[in-house]
Specification:
The protein is an alpha/beta fold and 132 residues long. It has helices at 12-27, 33-45, 49-56; strands at residues 68-74, 77-80, 85-86, 89-95, 98-101, 107-108, 115-121, 124-126. The chain is built from three helices and eight strands; from the N terminus they run αααββββββββ. The strands form three sheets. A three-stranded parallel β-sheet has the order 1-4-7, with no helix packed on it. The protein has a three-stranded parallel β-sheet with strand order 2-5-8, with no helix packed on it. A two-stranded parallel ribbon has the order 3-6.
């Protein structure tokens, strides 16, 4: 399992978020037409998260795309329960750790359909959901 996230393969959603940041930057005049075209081509051909990050590192984040809960922990356990704001995206990066996200009373803070990415080494993660 990769421990270096920039080397992690990029998904279609990752590329789309980078393209949106580039579109906004082009519309704001932060990038000229030629540079925008070069970066868009780079984003479409990017294979890793690191390649995408390099294309947008000098740009402000697009509103709504930075909303994420990142859990990075080694050992022990991490519990999120009760009333808590649940963002559109959750990243779990743990080693020898048990992660529990109880969504029973969580408040969803985004209209977007989100994602959960999990990198666990010798640990576990669970997300109890409310009964219907």
């Amino acid at each position: 399992m990769p421990t270096d996230l920039p080397a992690m393969r990029a998904s279609h959603d990752d590329r789309e978020r980078a393209l949106e940041a580039l579109r906004v930057a082009g519309g704001d005049g932060r990038l000229g037409a030629e540079e925008l075209e070069t970066r868009v081509e780079g984003a479409l051909n990017a294979r890793t998260l690191g390649e995408l990050a390099a294309l947008t590192a000098d740009l402000p984040s697009v509103p709504g795309t930075k909303e994420a809960l990142v859990i990075a922990q080694e050992g022990g356990k991490y519990v999120k329960d009760g009333r808590w704001p649940m963002p559109a995206h959750i990243e779990i990066r743990t080693q020898l750790c048990k992660v529990t996200l109880d969504l029973t009373e969580a408040t969803i803070t985004s209209n977007a359909c989100g994602s959960t990415r999990t990198w666990c080494t010798a640990g576990s993660s669970s997300s109890p959901r409310p009964a219907r």
